[in-house]
Amino acid sequence: MRRLWLVFAQAVTISVAVLFVITTLKPEWLQNGTPGSVVAIFEAPGNAPPPASSGEPGTYAAAADRSMPAVVHVFTSKATTTQRHPLLDDPLFRHFFGDGNGKDNAPRQRASGLGSGVIVSPDGFILTNNHVIDGADEIEVALNDGRKFPAQLVGRDPETDLAVLRVVTAEQLPVITFAAGDTLRVGDVVLAIGNPFGVGQTVTMGIISALGRNQLGINTFENYIQTDAAINPGNSGGALVDSAGNLVGINTAIYSRSGGSLGIGFAIPVSLARNVLEQIVVSGEVTRGWVGVEIQEITPELAESFGLGDTSGALIAGVLRGSPAERAGIRPGDVLVGVAGRQVRDTKSMLELVAALPPGQIAEFRIRRAAAEIDLKVEVGRRPTPGAANTRRK
After folding, report:
1. CB atoms within 10 A of CB 305
2. What's the predicted TM-score (pTM) here?
3. φ, ψ dihedrals at 33, nearest 5°
4. Which of 96, 249, 296, 306 could form a disulfide with 317, with the two C-beta atoms 3.0–4.6 Å apart?
5. Which residues contact 96 (CB under 8 A, 6 or more apart)?
6. DSSP letter, residue 178
7. Which residues does UniProt mark as catalytic (predicted)?
8. Among 283, 299, 327, where does a domain finish?
């Protein structure tokens, strides 16, 4: 009997010791009553959970840390003239009350604006939106670390809503890295970095919702990246970066009925921004080809009325007098189907193909007139520089 009691006491002691060890080292084994390693035995091999990542899953802090220092705040100001009170133009009123500041001296004040920009070169070149600096006579940029520098306008391109600034300093400036080519896909994660509402540098996260958005009526040349990353007033000119922190676009506009973000934002792709940047840095402006025609999209109804087999090409709706197109023999009603050996699919592709031609070049334009296709030699002219686009942007 004494031996049985000793065996029982030893068993209880060992059990308590095992329980203590499990409670201390593996408490999760007691929550479901079954060790986690046992559960895996009953799972199908094809449905096994993926192995844990050795990095930091669920965070984009590394991408933000890499790109945020190169995103700056852009502060602008310009002198404006306020409207004189109409009574100051009344002689009787001026007789009794004086003429205030004088009939020809309207009160003046300064209007300020804000936006964002991206440092793209160690030489201090900064990409931003044209509408951020449009009309400004003073521009200042502030870095994320608090440093501030006056900036000069190098050049601007209203037709893509891009502008290039430059700060001259002996201090070292952080520079963003451009993404390699157009590698974006719908569904890729992106970060939008800027200064929304002037609250300070902010990072928002979303995905690429669509690529190649055009015909939005924002700019002449449109090839937008659409994203649901929150973009608000003040974000204009800021960076859209990929999950590695590389620049993929310049935030430029939103679709909104309230003035705030509704999850539909647009950014200029880095390929277009790089082309504009290089031209402005080299020559101070962007040069594009021009032939002087008004074009119209070919709808199925127009195709039927003109006896066309399909809707490909661009309908010539008008030809400017004295333009390269008129001198070459292009007429209203012609359908442009090819430029310099490349097919014209629609009005957008026609505009891009002509704009890419250097002024002075003789290019072959293929047109469809009646039932025949003919080739015409056109001496490409220089596209006139437009004024600032009158559109709502954020």
Report:
1. 9
2. 0.71
3. 80, 0
4. 296
5. none
6. B
7. 131 (charge relay system), 161 (charge relay system), 236 (charge relay system)
8. 283
131 is in an annotated binding site: yes
Tokens of 43: 């799972």
Q: Which two tokens stand for residue 3?
A: 């031996």
**Residue type at 177 in one-letter notation:** T
**221: phi then psi, degrees, rounded to nearest 5:** -105, 115
**Residue 234 counted as an annotated binding residue:** yes
- Taking 50 as the threshold, does the pLDDT of residue 148 lie above it? yes
Q: Does residue 236 have a known ligand-binding role? A: yes
Q: What pLDDT does residue 16 have?
A: 61
Q: How far apart are CA 308 and CA 302, in angstroms?
A: 8
What is the C-alpha separation between 128 and 110, in angstroms, rounded? Answer: 22
Report whether 161 belongs to an annotated binding site: yes
Integer-rounded Cα radius of gyration of the chain: 32
Q: Which helix (H) or strand (E) holds 366?
A: strand 362-369
CA distance 274 to 87: 53
Domain span at 152: 65-166
Q: Is the same domain home to 301 and 356?
A: yes
Looking at the structure, tell me whether residues 139 and 113 fall in a common domain. Answer: yes
Tell me how many domains the chain contains: 4
Contacts of 80 by beta carbon, 8 Å cutoff, 6+ apart: 108, 109, 110, 111
209: number of Cβ within 10 Å: 18
Q: Which amino acid is at 139?
A: I
Q: Which helix (H) or strand (E) holds 3?
A: helix 2-25
Please tell me whether 305 is known to bind a ligand: no
What would the pLDDT profile of 91-134 be if each residue is shown by its tens digit? 655 555 555 555 455 555 556 778 999 999 998 999 999 999 98
Average pLDDT over residues 267-284: 92
What are 235's two structure tokens?
Answer: 């974000």
Helix (H) or strand (E) holding 291: none
Evaluate if residue 266 carries a pLDDT over 80: yes
One domain, residues 277 and 306: no
29: exposed, middle or buried (Cβ count in 10 Å: 0-12, 13-18, 19+): middle
| Residue 329 in domain | yes
* Enclosing H/E stretch for 164: strand 162-166
Q: Residue 258 sits in a domain of what CATH number?
A: 2.40.10.10
Specify the pairing of strand 293-296 against strand 247-254.
unpaired
DSSP state of 280: H
What the block records as the tokens of 30 is: 């007691």
Please give the helix or strand (H or E) that residue 377 lies within, else none: strand 372-379
Residues involved in catalysis: 131, 161, 236
Cα–Cα distance for residue pair 203/194, rounded to 1 Å? 7
> Do 25 and 80 fall within a single domain?
no
